[in-house]
């Protein structure tokens, strides 16, 4: 802080500038100085509390992003597993259908041969 002191010398004024601290200017026990120091300490405390809360919020955000990533990966895996299961089910159903068709053809062939034999026996 700069302060100017005005000197009157022989009818003329002269300003002398000096660098002083607030304590030097108002004294260490000044009520105003005490109030300013108290406000400064409160501001520092609030800043520390804010920084702490910000760090906690950053940590929570990082955790949420990690969980989101994990859930997304699990969802992708579940979709892939479902597709694989559906393909497997479709393949099994096609095999069963082919097996049943084959059995039906064998039964039809047997019935036809039996019917032909019984007609020729009569």
Task: Explain what you see.
The chain is an alpha+beta fold. The longest helix has 91 residues, at 31-121. It contains two helices and two strands; from the N terminus they run ββαα. The chain has a two-stranded antiparallel sheet with strand order 1-2. The chain has one domain (24-112). The mean pLDDT is 84. It has helices at 22-26, 31-121, and strands at 2-9, 12-19. Keywords: Coiled coil, Signal. Residues 33-74 form a coiled coil. Residues 1-18 form the signal peptide.
Brief overview:
By secondary structure, this protein is of the alpha+beta class.
Task: Give the topology.
Layout: E1 2-9, E2 12-19, H1 22-26, H2 31-121
Antiparallel strand pairs: 1-2
Signal peptide: 1-18
Keywords: Coiled coil, Signal
Coiled coil: 33-74
């Amino acid at each position: 802080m700069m302060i100017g002191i005005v000197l009157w010398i022989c009818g003329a004024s002269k300003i002398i500038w000096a660098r002083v601290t607030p304590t030097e200017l108002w004294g260490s026990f000044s009520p105003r100085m005490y109030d300013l120091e108290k406000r400064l300490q409160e501001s520092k405390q609030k800043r520390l509390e804010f920084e702490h809360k910000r760090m906690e919020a950053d940590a929570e955000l990082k955790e949420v992003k990690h969980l989101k990533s994990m859930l997304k990966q699990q969802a992708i895996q579940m979709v892939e597993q479902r597709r694989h299961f559906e393909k497997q089910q479709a393949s099994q159903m096609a095999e069963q259908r082919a097996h049943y068709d084959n059995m039906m053809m064998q039964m039809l062939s047997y019935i036809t041969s039996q019917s032909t034999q019984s007609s020729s026996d009569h």
